[in-house]
Write a sequence for this structure.
C-alpha cells in the first residue's frame, strides 16, 4: 500500500501559496488530505484541489494536529510564531521565509545541490531566498567540475518577489503613467513601472542590503563553503514575474566555455538557452511558468584570465519558492525522512 501524507499550506492565499496548491496537484504529490491555512481575514475563502473545493481555515493551535508536512509561505514572523506548534504536532515544516535559514540546526536545501542535507532536519527545513536558489542551480554544476573561488552577482528582480499585490501595483502604475497620471506607490518605496531601483530591504553598515547579504550567506551555507567570496547587487526592475541575474565566476584555472556549456546543458534544473546569431538568451518572459532555470550567454570574462560569465532567468514564484519547497517535500517522502501519521495511512487505504 503506497503511503500518503497529510499536508498543510500556511499562507495559502498568497502568490506562493497558490502556486503550492497547483504544484502538489500537477506533480501528483501523495496527498491524502490537504489543509489550507491563512489569517483570520482570509478564512472562509475557497480554493480548488483535485476537483474538490477546499475551505481556507484560520491558523490556530489545533491546525497542525495529524499533519505530516507543512509548507509555509506566510512571512518570517508567522513562521516563528507557529514553528514550535508544527514540530510538537509531529510534522515537518518546510519554511519559505528567512526565519530559520541561517540557524545552524536547520538545513537550507536546494534539492539539485544539497539534497542529503534534508535528512538532518529536526522538524524544520528552510527554503532559500529566491535569488539564491536560482544562482545556486546554475553555479553548482560548474563548482563541482572546478571549485569557484569568487562569485559576483547582479540581480534584476521582478515585482513577483514582493507578492501578488506588488505585481498588481506595477500594472496600476503603468496604466496611470500611460494615462498621464502620477503613479501611486503602496508596497514599494518608489514607482516601479518604467523605473528601477536598488532592492528596498534595509541596508547594513557596509552599504549592502538584506537581500544581497542573503545571497552571500545562504550560498555559503548551501555550498558548505563558509569562506567563499561572494558579492551581490540586487535591483528591482519593472518586470512582473521571474528574476534575472548576471553572474561572474572566478576560478583558480581558466574554465573552458564549451565545457561549461556542456555541463550546464546536462545539469538538473537547468535549461541552456543561447542562440548567438539571433542574440537570443534567457528572458523573464520565457522563464515565467517554467520549472527550469534558463541559463545562457556563457562567455569568458575578458577582464580576468580565469573568469566566466553567465546570464540566467528563473521563475521566482515557482523554482525560486514553491517548486523548491515541493521538491524538498518529495525528498522527504522518497527517502522516508518524514513518517506519516497513522491517520494519513488509513486515509490512503
Amino acid at each position: 500500500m503506497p503511503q500518503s501524507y497529510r499536508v498543510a499550506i500556511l499562507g495559502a492565499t498568497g502568490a506562493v501559496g497558490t502556486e503550492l496548491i497547483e504544484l502538489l496537484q500537477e506533480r501528483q504529490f501523495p496527498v491524502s488530505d490537504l489543509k489550507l491555512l491563512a489569517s483570520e481575514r482570509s478564512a472562509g475563502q475557497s480554493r480548488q484541489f483535485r476537483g474538490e473545493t477546499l475551505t481556507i481555515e484560520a491558523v490556530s493551535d489545533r491546525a497542525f494536529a495529524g499533519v505530516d508536512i507543512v509548507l509555509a509561505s506566510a512571512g518570517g514572523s508567522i513562521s516563528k510564531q507557529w514553528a514550535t506548534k508544527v514540530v510538537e504536532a509531529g510534522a515537518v515544516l518546510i519554511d519559505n521565509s528567512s526565519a530559520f535559514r541561517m540557524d545552524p540546526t536547520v538545513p537550507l536545501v536546494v534539492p539539485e545541490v544539497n539534497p542529503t542535507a534534508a535528512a538532518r532536519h529536526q522538524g524544520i527545513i528552510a527554503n532559500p531566498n529566491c535569488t539564491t536558489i536560482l544562482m545556486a542551480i546554475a553555479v553548482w554544476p560548474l563548482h563541482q567540475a572546478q571549485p569557484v573561488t569568487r562569485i559576483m552577482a547582479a540581480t534584476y528582480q521582478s515585482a513577483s518577489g514582493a507578492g501578488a499585490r506588488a505585481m498588481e501595483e506595477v500594472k496600476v502604475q503603468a496604466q496611470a503613467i500611460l494615462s498621464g497620471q502620477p503613479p501611486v506607490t503602496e508596497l514599494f518605496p518608489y514607482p516601479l513601472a518604467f523605473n528601477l531601483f536598488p532592492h528596498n530591504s534595509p541596508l547594513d553598515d557596509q552599504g549592502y542590503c538584506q537581500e544581497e547579504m542573503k545571497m552571500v550567506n545562504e550560498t555559503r551555507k548551501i555550498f558548505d563553503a563558509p569562506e567563499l567570496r561572494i558579492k551581490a547587487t540586487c535591483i528591482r526592475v519593472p518586470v512582473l514575474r521571474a528574476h534575472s541575474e548576471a553572474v561572474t565566476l572566478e576560478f583558480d584555472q581558466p574554465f573552458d566555455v564549451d565545457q561549461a556549456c556542456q555541463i550546464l546543458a546536462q545539469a538538473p534544473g537547468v535549461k541552456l538557452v543561447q542562440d548567438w546569431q539571433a542574440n537570443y538568451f534567457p528572458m523573464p518572459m520565457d522563464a515565467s511558468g517554467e520549472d527550469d532555470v534558463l541559463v545562457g550567454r556563457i562567455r569568458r570574462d575578458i577582464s580576468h584570465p580565469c573568469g566566466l560569465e553567465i546570464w540566467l532567468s528563473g521563475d521566482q514564484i515557482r523554482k525560486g519558492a514553491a517548486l523548491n519547497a515541493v521538491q524538498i517535500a518529495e525528498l522527504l517522502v522518497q527517502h522516508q525522512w518524514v513518517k506519516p501519521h497513522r491517520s494519513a495511512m488509513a486515509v490512503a487505504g
User: Anything to note?
Assistant: Residues 343-349 have pLDDT under 50 and may be disordered. The CA atoms of residues 36 and 94 lie 15 Å apart.
